[in-house]
Predict the 3D structure of the following.
Amino acid sequence: MCVNCFGRRRFAQLAFGLAATGLSGVAPARATIRTPETLPLVMLDPGHGGHDPGAIAPDGVYEKHITLATGLTLRTTLLATKRYRVQMTRTHDVFIPLEDRVTAAVQAGADLFLALHCDHLPEPSLRGASFFTLSNTASDDLAAGIADDENGTGVAGAPLAGVSPQVASILASLETRATKVGSATLAQDLKNSFKGVIPLLPDPRRSANFAVLRDPSTPSTLLEMGCLTNPLDEKRLRSPMHRKMMAAKITTAIDMYFAHFAGGRMAG
């Protein structure tokens, strides 16, 4: 069994067991001083690219350009804190299959996966960001439609190697449960960080079966940064200043995530 896989599985067990420490009164573990090589790794996934433009605004603006520009700004902001390592599934205008985006996170041993997208909704008056986590059953018809638009070829979680099928099944179950808690925690941290600063859709916490969120060992959230079908949202999303502000708010949310939910892992 590889050391990296064992570490991630061990965290899955610890994370699920410690997820409710706020209720039990147990204090979170204190973070230790970390070397650059052991800083938490954040995988950023700018949606679409290459021959896949994603959503297209009425005036022709492509989602793929906004997600990439935001991803590059966010990478700079995260690295400037010196608290994280950052990788991206793409850094230029190239098409990456959905299964390869998941594989990149698995192979890198990412501690967090954040997919960046823009909405294209049937009602132009709808505007604001929303935060999606994985669920076999969509939280509502809108979430189901968005997932259908974003998904291509599905991919199951990577198999666990080096253990018996029975043990692998138990570990996968622990990972999935812990990952769901982590994903939901990040989505809530994003909502809290955006509130009052960046417009939100009504009921911005949603869930659906997104292919890029299916790695059972990495907490993953998909951020719809705004609606390209809404003129106000489109104007903001095209603004470098707005993207810089959004990157700062996302960084704040990631800080909250690692300080509270993932504190035990970072101290291990």
